[in-house]
Amino acid sequence: MLNFLSDTVTLPTKEMMEAIQQAVLGDDVYGQDQTVNELESLAARMLGMEAACLMPSGTMANLSSIMAHCPRGSKVLVGDESDIYIYEAGGASVCGGIVYEPIPTQADGRLLVQDLEKAFPVDEEDPQFALPALLCLENTHNRCGGKVLPIPYLQEVKEFASARKIPVHMDGARIFNASVALDMDVREITCYADSIQVCLSKGLSAPVGSIVAGSHDHLKKVRRIRKMLGGGMRQAGIIAAPGLVALHSMVKRLDEDHQHAKQLAHGLAEIDGIDLDASEVQTNIVLFRITDPRFSWSTFLETAKEYGVIFSEMGYGRIRAVVHRQISSDDINKAVQAVEKMLKDSPL
Ligand SMILES: *Cc1c(COP(=O)(O)O)cnc(C)c1O
Where, if anywhere, are coiled coils annotated (predicted)? Predict the structure, then answer.
């Protein structure tokens, strides 16, 4: 099977499996796991933040960080196409008593300042209004097809948020895809956020885990909330050891995924019945539509699977292909050929 379902399907590398076996372990709830401590200090340094904390998932990372920033009854401003708003089970409302304010998402993943502005009440003293306490950005943006938020835009949002006295949380599940695509140190991106969530388990290929990074004060609160949510883990060095390999040696190779994604996009764009603009591809995600009238998006997905290729649906009938370490250039050619053959074979 050629599996374009997600970059989360990546299995740990041999180096990661060896690191797991050799990891020095301790009880991390008591702060005694050296491997976790090493990962957290490396992550903080790489991301240009004061402190960092290992999390079991990106969802818990975002939730803990949002709850640490937002008092009960306040609002968190999130993109209406964001992972936080769509795929995280409404955790901030359920666990934190926080109101999500969905902001229209532009095709390139930006939330316009003029739209963010509307979330602020005319009179902050008026007790009837819930007050915004946090603004969240997603970088790269999954449902916008792996788009990288431009630096001048981040600067504009940070200035807006500072003027409005609220922090910015970045859902940077794929932040290293952004830094590699821009050919910049990731700190040139994270400097526009007060806190960030980074997934180790996506293109970086670690089996489990995410990082929250931010100020010392913020991380103190995040750790308490992580414990409350059940995310205090004992010999978590088992997770941190492959995470260290991910941060040390898996970042640069993301460029290869980006090249492969472009290759896939150019190949698929040539096929009649597929609507795809290859110039839209910036990182490791390719979005397209099936316009061939013999298929709906769901019969396309089913049939593609019979031809050995797994894609997924990404809203509004769009089909998503995610490229990752376990997809080679040769696999891309095979996938394009399989889709070609499938469209040729299908009865009218
Ligand atoms: C995957 C993802 C998450 C959540 O991470 P999990 O580890 O799956 O909980 C959050 N935000 C974005 C943008 C993601 O792609």
Answer: none
Number of H helices, E strands in the chain: 14, 13
- In this structure, are residues 195 and 167 in contact, taking their beta carbons and an 8 Å threshold? yes
CATH says 253-337 is which class?
alpha beta
Whose alpha carbon is nearest atom 5 of ligand 1?
58
- Identify which of 138, 217, 118, 134 has the alpha carbon closest to the alpha carbon of residue 168: 134
Model-level pTM? 0.97
Which residue out of 171, 177, 208 has the highest number of ligand 1 atoms within 8 Å of its CB and is therefore the one to mutate?
A: 171
Domain ranges of the chain: 12-249, 253-337
Q: Which residues, judged by CB distance below 6 Å to any ligand atom, belong to the binding site of ligand 1?
A: 57-59, 62, 83, 138, 142, 171, 173, 199, 201, 210
pLDDT in tens, 297-327: 999 999 999 999 999 999 999 999 999 999 9
- The tens digit of pLDDT for each residue in 214-267 reads 999 999 999 999 999 999 999 999 999 999 999 999 999 999 999 999 999 999
